[in-house]
Amino acid sequence: MGRGKIEIKRIENANNRVVTFSKRRNGLVKKAKEITVLCDAKVALIIFASNGKMVDYCCPSMDLGAMLDQYQKLSGKKLWDAKHENLSNEIDRIKKEYDSLQLELRHLKGEDIQSLNLKNLMAVEHAIEHGLDKVRDHQMELLNSKRRNDKMIMEEHRQLTFQLQQQDMAIASNARGMMMRDHDGQFGYRVQPIQPNLQEKIMSLVID
C-alpha cells in the first residue's frame, strides 16, 4: 500500500509541528547537497524556524554573499540599499588593507620575499633599519631612566643612612646625659667636665 496523501496545511499540534519541521528540514538540506554534487549546481538554502532559529546551506564552490550578489544581478532585484552597499565596499577595503598589512609584516619577518624585486627589497630593508633605530632609541631611553632612578635610590639611601646615624648619636648622647644626672643625684655632687686647657696642664704635670 502506498503512503496516504498528507493535506498541506498548518499543523496545529506543536510537538508534531516540531517533529515534521525537523524531518523536512533535514530532507531539504540533503536534497540541496545532492543536487550540488550530482548536477554541479550552485545552491544556497536558508530556513528560519518558527522559534527564530536559522538553518543554512551553501555549496562549497561559492559563499553565500557571492550567491546573493549574483542573484541580485540576474534578478534585477535590489537586495541592498546604498547604505549597505557603501558598508560592503568599506568592509572590502578594510579586508584588502588588512591583507596588505599582513603581507608587509611577513616581508619584515623575512618571509615570502622571493617574489620581491630590488626596489621592494630596498624598501623592506629601509623599514627594518628605521624600526631598529626606534627600538635602539627607546632602549637607550629606558637605560637612562634606569640609571637616573638608581642614582636617586642611592642618594636617598645615603641620606637615610646619615639620618639614622644622627639619630643613633643623639640617642647615645641623651643616654650619657641621663646616666650623669642619675650619678650626680645619687652622690650629691656634679662631676664637672674637664676643660681642654686644664686637661693639657694635668697631662704636662704627669709627664714631668
UniProtKB/TrEMBL annotation:
Compartment(s): Nucleus
GO cellular component annotations of the record: nucleus
Domain K-box positions: 84-170
Main location: nucleus
Keywords: Activator, Coiled coil, Developmental protein, Differentiation, DNA-binding, Flowering, Nucleus, Transcription, Transcription regulation
CDD domains: MADS_MEF2_like
Stretches assigned to coiled coil: 77-111
Gene Ontology terms describing biological process: cell differentiation; positive regulation of transcription by RNA polymerase II; specification of floral organ identity
Domain MADS-box: 1-61
Record PROSITE patterns: K_BOX (PS51297), MADS_BOX_1 (PS00350), MADS_BOX_2 (PS50066)
GO molecular function: DNA-binding transcription factor activity; protein dimerization activity; RNA polymerase II transcription regulatory region sequence-specific DNA binding
SUPFAM superfamilies with a match to the protein in the record: SRF-like (SSF55455)
Pfam family, one: K-box
Cited PANTHER family: SERUM RESPONSE FACTOR HOMOLOG
Protein name as annotated: Pistillata
Source organism of this protein record: Arabidopsis lyrata subsp. lyrata (Lyre-leaved rock-cress)
